[in-house]
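stage 2 :: seqdesign
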């Protein structure tokens, strides 16, 4: 087995992580900076360049053959640009060109962060061995990605599988994206917490009003907290069922902070799925927690770069 590496960047509103990853998905070198998310675009790019500087200084860099970027979106892989909602300084920012310049001209593959996590779960995690899968990240937002016919399916711009913005409530709340009743508007962590508070849930003495605190209250039987998670579970079930009906996935993998809520989320989710995934070809749909943890974005960006390299070699 050759010991080539692929470089990976995982860019979000909180942190910019970089790594060199081997052909088995193992991280051999890593670097990280906080994202200066409220600063101008060049300052954010400076943090990316610092991460790349650490990677290029590693002796293993000489064996890196490609670089994958998983970025908060929306991204546009055809234009090589990113406009992350949570990094206002980047609007149509030419990230691919700038990274290529900083990385000595390596081929660069750009995908959305939900697609990156999907690539990781399919390569090394809970969707391994499944040819048709949906992977979701349920945290501050709700993102996702698809594997179809055994291949990552990023779509032309790198955003395919963005389940957070499927509408599951036609007359529902206005979503910041401009649509109504989106999965994200109901099932993201902040929206679970918002609904619990609006309906009279009282946080404990520590004043913690996060979705994790609502999950803890639900575990202890608080009826308002339970109801908020049930509503989120129904929104997720409707979105998952719609996706499965459309493209025939057989597994849905759920990660992110809300995905860590355990039975508080998965028990009502599996029950609600029975109400929405009713046709014969979607009834055996499995729902399972993600396995890849905090390195999923890096491992997935590496997987996408590897897949592109393999495709290029077979052309």
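stage 2 :: out
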């Amino acid at each position: 087995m050759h010991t080539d590496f692929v470089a990976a960047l995982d860019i979000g509103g909180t942190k910019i992580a970089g790594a060199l990853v081997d052909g088995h998905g193992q991280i051999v070198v890593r670097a990280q900076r906080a994202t200066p998310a409220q600063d101008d675009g060049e300052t954010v790019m400076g943090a990316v360049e610092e991460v790349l500087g650490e990677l290029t200084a590693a002796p293993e860099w000489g064996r890196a053959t490609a670089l994958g970027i998983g970025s908060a979106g929306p991204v546009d892989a055809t234009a090589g640009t990113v406009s992350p909602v949570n990094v206002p300084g980047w609007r149509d920012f030419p990230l691919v060109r700038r990274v290529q310049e900083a990385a000595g001209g390596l081929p660069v593959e750009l995908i959305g962060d939900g697609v990156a996590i999907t690539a990781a779960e399919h390569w090394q995690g809970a969707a391994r061995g499944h040819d048709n899968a949906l992977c979701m990240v349920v945290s501050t937002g709700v993102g996702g990605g698809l594997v179809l016919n055994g291949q990552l399916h990023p779509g032309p711009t790198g955003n395919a599988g963005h389940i957070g913005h499927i509408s599951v409530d036609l007359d529902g709340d206005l979503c910041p994206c401009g649509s109504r009743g989106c999965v994200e508007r109901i099932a993201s962590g902040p929206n679970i917490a918002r609904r619990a508070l609006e309906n009279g849930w009282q946080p404990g003495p520590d004043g913690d009003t996060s979705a994790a605190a609502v999950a803890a209250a639900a575990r202890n039987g608080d009826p308002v907290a339970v109801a908020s998670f049930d509503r989120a579970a129904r929104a997720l079930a409707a979105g998952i069922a719609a996706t499965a009906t459309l493209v025939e996935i057989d597994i849905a993998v759920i990660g992110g902070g809300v995905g860590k809520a355990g039975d508080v989320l998965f028990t009502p989710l599996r029950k609600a799925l029975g109400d929405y995934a009713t046709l014969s070809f979607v009834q055996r749909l499995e729902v399972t927690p993600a396995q890849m943890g905090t390195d999923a974005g890096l491992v997935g960006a590496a997987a996408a770069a590897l897949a592109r390299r393999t495709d290029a070699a077979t052309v």
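stage 3 :: structure notes
- DSSP finds nine helices and twelve strands in the chain.
- The chain has two domains: 5-111, 126-291.
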